[in-house]
Each structure stands twice: as structure tokens, then as C-alpha cells.
Design goal:
The chain is mainly alpha-helical. It is built from 29 helices and no strands. The longest helix is centred in the C-terminal third of the chain and has 26 residues.
């Protein structure tokens, strides 16, 4: 009776009244008053009246409420799902929206997109397994947007973002969005700023759900979706107009994404990082200092994965040498930024990885590049101090070098240490170089004579620093450097360096005591405490006894 008599007559009255407020009110009453199963069984009749309403009626709200009621009905009563399929609810709703948009040519763009958002929400709740339905809704939206270029109206762009966000929120998996052929086509209609926002939403979804992108093809498709963040696209503002903090936040988000691009298969993983580099290098120099480091560490992880597999290495489609070539070219790209300090750190990381792979020529080449950067690009004195300590620390851990290569690099390191701007920095770098000639690891170099030369050179530089301080400030400054050198003497004395004798240590202690009691010495409680603590340590070792205690007994402090 409702289907054949009541509803047709009510709808006839609604259509014939011609008053927009009355039509909206009556349609709303029909949707809210009658049961959900009635709507489902009379869907075609009810939707057939929508295009006949006055063009000024807020039809999008009416249809959105109907779709919301039906989707709630389906989610609360799963047993009625066969009825939705039987009456072809999605097809009828989709066709009705097309007819309504055609019947109202003056409908604002935001209204048309809102209808598609409501239909997509209905589809995701009622037919979540039908990706073809989801793609069909997006395709209808693309058709509506075709020829309109970039959408600039804020309300419309918000609806497009809602449309694109819905599949991500429903499936919690970007991989599903990558299967939708019309998804990137909708993205194309967003302006630059909104495109970036949507790219951020996609990356955050990946991070939140720890979604791993496991093939180069999927990475290619993903980067097409987020290209607003990884390179400058049409409509991008000039460099001067960019907000620096926002830019850093966006690029850090892209950097985090790199660690979600993984595959256990080494060949496919190499394809992935090659694809990533191709896109990153198109992003311009400003982005490289953010995006290159995670890419380098991803490649280094692949190198170490190859090393752990027996039988891998020199054979197969992916070899450590091939990856190191990739790394060299990748770090070299930072020269366009320029970011010499960052590039130097990455070269040293690569050198350590080459050492672990036991490939001496590659490790030497990375060190060579690090030294070239130090010589030619790093001019700031503080940056030089940091860089030379990084070089010394890394070189000390490298075991792959033969005598000739190691001598060349250690000579370079000690030479640059002695050429730092400040005497204090020179002294510290030179005494740190002593560790390059005494490595405790099995088979490590143990050249006691060169250790002693480094420490004596450090003492000469410390003396020069004291004299300069005396000339410029009227006092010789604190004796901190001498106490630090004393601790180095004690370290090598304990390690069994035959060149570091108890007499040398005693002479240095006397020198420090003389310096601290000098009239020109400036008083510094922290240096006094440091020296006193060192003397207590010597005393402690004597009292402790044993073989080490006997050695310390010879030191008269």
C-alpha cells in the first residue's frame, strides 16, 4: 500500500507544490518519518522525485540524509545486506545523483562534490569490499571536475579532501587507495596548498598504520600521490614565500616515510631506493638535506643485509659494490645544496659500512671525499673542529686499511688537527689522534712511538696556548689541557704502551703542579678538582694492587 499508493501520491503533492521551502520540508519529513526498510524497497520511486524539485531546493542535504539513514540501517542490521544488493541501492543512488546534478545546472560545485562525498560514505559503510564502487564514485567526481582546472573555492576543496580522506580512514591502508585509478585524478584538481595537505594526510596514514610499501611500482604510484611534498608543482610559491618551519615539518615527514619503503628481497629493495632517489633528485636542492640522509641509511641497511647472508656479495643482481656506487652518487648530490658538513658525515658512515664489507678501495674513496670536503668546503672554525673529530673517530674504528692507506689518512688527520684555528682546539684534536696509532681490537695497530709523538706534540701546543694567553690576557689561563693530556698518558700506560713510562707521567704531573702554582696562572676550581681527581685515581690503583697496581707504584705523585 505504501509503495503503490501512499508514497506516489505524497511525492506528487511535493513536486506540484512548487514552493522550495515546502518541498525541502516535506522531503525531509518523508525521509525521517517512514521506516528504513520502506525507503529501501521504494528507493527508485523516492529518488525519481528528486530531479523534479525546484532548482533552489537544498537537494544535497535531502539526499545526504537519505544515504546516511540507509547506511546506518545496513550497519545496525547486517542481515538486511542482501536486500541492498537485490534492489541495487548503490546503482540507483549513483544514477539519481547524476540526474540531480544535470537537472540543477546552477548547483554550486561544493554541492555536487558533497553529494559524491555522501555517496562514497554510503558505499564504504554498506559495500566496503567493492573497490569498484568506490572508484566509480571518484570517477563521477572527476567527470564533474573535468575542465575546471584547480579548484580554489575553500569549501569545495574541503569536500574534495573529505572525499580523498574517506578511503584512507576506512581501510587504514594506503595500498587500497593506490588501487583506485581515479584517486590521483581527483588529486590533480587540488590547488598547491591543499595538495600538500592531502599528501601529508596520506603519509601520516602510512605512519599511523605502519603500512610498508614493498615494491618499486607501488612507491612510484605513492610518490605520484604525494608529489606536492617531494617536488615543486604548478602553482608552488617562490622560495622566498615559503614558511621555513612548515617546510621543515613537511620534509621531515617525507624523510620518515623512507623508512616505510621496505622489502626483504634485496633486488626489489634496490629498485625501491633507486626509484626514491629519482624522485628526490627532482625535488630541488632545498629538499635534499632532509631527504638524502634517510635514503643513505636505507641503502646502508641493505648493504648490511647482504653481508649477513652467506653466499651473497660479489655475485647476484645486487652487490655491495653496486650499492656503494649508488651511495656515492647520492651523497654527491648534496653538493648542489650545498651541505658539506652533512655530506661529510654521510661519507664517513659509508666508509664504516665499506669497512664492515671488507672493501678497502671503497672505504678509502669515501674517506678521500670526506677530506676533500673538509679542505675545500668547510671554512667555519667550529665546524672544522667537529668535522676533524668525526674523521678521527671513524678512522680509529676502521680495520680494513693496509699500512700505506692507513698511514696516508692518519697523516692527513694529524696534519689538519694541528692546523685548527684555536690552539686549544689544536691540542685536543692532536691528543685524540694518538688513538689512531693504538687500537685495542684484535690485529689493531699498536705504534707506541707515534702515540708518544702525538702526546708530546699536544704538550708543545698546550705550552704555546699558555704563552699566548699570558701575552694577551696577562695570565696563562687554566691548566686544563695539561690535565687532559695526563689522562691520555695514564690510558696508554694502562694499555701497556712501552713508550709511556712512569718517569714521563711523573714529569708531566710536576709540570702541571708548577703551572698551577705559577703567579701567572688563573685560578679555576674545576681544573683543581680535575687534577685532584686524577691524582686520587693514581693512588687508588696503587692501593688496589695486582699487576696494574705494581705499574702504578713506579709513579711518584
Amino acid at each position: 500500500m505504501y509503495k503503490d499508493i501512499v508514497l506516489p501520491r505524497v511525492l506528487e503533492q511535493v513536486v506540484n507544490c512548487k514552493d522550495e521551502l515546502a518541498q525541502y520540508y516535506l522531503m525531509d519529513c518523508i525521509i525521517q518519518v517512514f521506516p528504513d526498510d520502506y525507503h529501501l524497497q521504494t528507493l527508485e520511486t523516492l529518488l525519481g522525485a528528486c530531479p523534479q524539485l525546484q532548482p533552489t531546493v537544498d537537494i544535497k542535504t535531502v539526499m545526504s540524509q537519505l544515504m546516511e539513514r540507509l547506511s546506518n540501517y545496513a550497519s545496525l542490521s547486517p542481515e538486511v545486506m542482501p536486500e541492498f544488493l537485490q534492489v541495487e541501492a548503490f546503482t540507483k543512488l549513483s544514477s539519481a545523483i547524476v540526474r540531480v546534478i544535470e537537472a540543477q545546472p546552477d548547483m554550486p560545485l561544493v554541492g555536487a562534490i558533497s553529494l559524491h562525498v555522501s555517496l562514497l560514505t554510503f558505499t564504504l559503510r554498506v559495500h566496503p569490499d567493492r573497490l569498484d564502487y568506490v572508484d566509480q564514485v571518484l570517477g563521477a567526481c572527476v567527470k564533474k571536475l573535468s575542465g575546471k582546472g584547480k579548484v580554489e573555492e575553500s569549501k569545495a576543496t574541503k569536500q574534495i579532501v573529505a572525499l580523498l580522506s574517506a578511503p584512507l580512514e576506512k581501510y587504514n591502508d594506503v595500498m587500497t587507495a593506490l588501487k583506485l585509478t581515479n584517486y590521483p585524478k581527483v588529486l590533480e584538481h587540488l590547488d598547491y596548498a591543499t595538495n600538500k595537505v592531502m599528501a601529508g594526510v596520506i603519509i601520516q596514514s602510512i605512519m599511523k598504520n605502519t603500512t610498508c610499501i614493498s615494491t618499486a611500482d607501488k612507491v612510484e604510484a605513492l610518490f605520484e600521490l604525494i608529489k606536492g611534498l617531494i617536488k615543486d608543482i604548478t602553482g608552488a610559491p617562490s622560495v622566498d614565500e615559503l614558511d621555513e618551519e612548515d617546510f621543515k615539518e613537511e620534509q621531515n615527514l617525507v624523510a620518515r616515510l623512507v623508512h616505510m619503503l621496505v622489502n626483504e628481497d634485496q633486488e626489489e629493495m634496490f629498485k625501491i631506493i633507486t626509484t626514491v632517489r629519482k624522485h628526490f633528485l627532482q625535488g630541488g636542492p632545498r629538499r635534499l638535506s632532509f631527504t638524502v640522509p634517510p635514503l643513505v641509511f636505507s641503502a646502508l641497511k641493505l648493504v648490511r643485509a647482504l653481508q649477513t647472508q652467506e653466499g651473497e656479495g660479489e655475485e647476484g643482481p645486487v652487490t655491495p659494490k653496486k650499492i656503494f656506487q649508488f651511495l656515492h652518487q647520492t651523497v654527491e648530490a648534496l653538493a648542489t645544496v650545498p651541505a658539506p658538513e652533512l655530506a661529510l658525515r654521510l661519507y664517513l658512515q659509508c666508509a664504516e659500512a665499506a669497512n664492515d664489507c671488507d672493501i678497502e678501495p671503497v672505504a678509502y674513496e669515501f674517506f678521500t671525499q670526506a677530506f676533500i670536503l673538509y679542505e675545500e668546503e668547510i671554512a667555519d672554525s667550529k665546524a672544522q673542529v667537529t668535522a676533524i673529530h668525526l674523521i678521527i673517530g671513524t678512522l680509529q674504528r676502521i680495520t680494513v686499511f693496509g699500512v700505506e692507506n692507513r698511514d696516508t689518512l692518519t697523516h692527513k688527520a694529524t696534519g689538519y688537527s694541528a692546523k685548527l684555528l684555536k690552539k686549544q682546539d689544536q691540542c685536543k684534536a692532536v691528543y685524540v689522534c694518538s688513538h689512531l696509532f693504538w687500537v685495542e681490537d684484535e690485529g689493531g695497530v699498536k705504534d707506541g712511538e707515534r702515540v708518544l709523538l702525538c702526546l708530546k706534540r699536544a704538550i708543545r701546543i698546550a705550552n704555546a696556548a699558555q704563552q699566548m694567553a699570558n701575552v694577551t690576557r696577562g695570565n696563562s689561563g687554566p691548566a686544563t689541557l695539561f690535565v687532559e693530556i695526563l689522562n691520555k698518558y695514564l690510558y696508554f700506560f694502562e694499555k701497556g704502551n712501552p713508550q709511556i713510562t712512569s718517569n714521563l707521567i711523573r714529569d708531566l704531573i710536576e709540570l702541571i703542579a708548577t703551572e698551577m702554582q705559577s703567579e701567572n696562572a688563573s685560578q679555576d676550581p674545576s681544573v683543581d678538582a680535575f687534577f685532584a681527581s686524577t691524582l686520587r685515581y693514581i693512588q687508588f690503583q696503587k692501593q688496589k694492587g695486582g699487576a696494574l697496581g705494581e705499574k702504578y707504584d713506579a709513579i711518584q705523585a
